[in-house]
Amino acid sequence: QAPLVESGGTLVQPGGSLRLSCAASGFTVDHLSIGWFRLAPGKEREGISCIDSSGGPTYYADSVKGRFTISRDDAANTVYLQMNSLKPEDTAVYYCAAARGCHYQMTDFHSWGQGTQVTVSS
Q: Is residue 103 within 8 Å of residue 50, measured between CB atoms?
């Protein structure tokens, strides 16, 4: 079983909303930063959002700023990504991973999940 498990991805129409979950198993994430990444066909993996531990700041890529919101529920050992106003270009496999801080490079994130597919199409 992967340390982090993503869920919530599905087919959604443009303009719709989805809520993705990143659930930790076997360890707690309260002291960790959690990032969301996505991989679209033919493109490189893109970091889209990150939330620091202990109520720290959040970060968003320009491509999703104003539409996506990251949050965490440490009691549930889960991080969420609320995605609104979805566009076809948001179609990708979405992954979450952990790091010691959001300022770390993508290669420093660990405990990657297996991803959840989000498809935005009419």
A: no
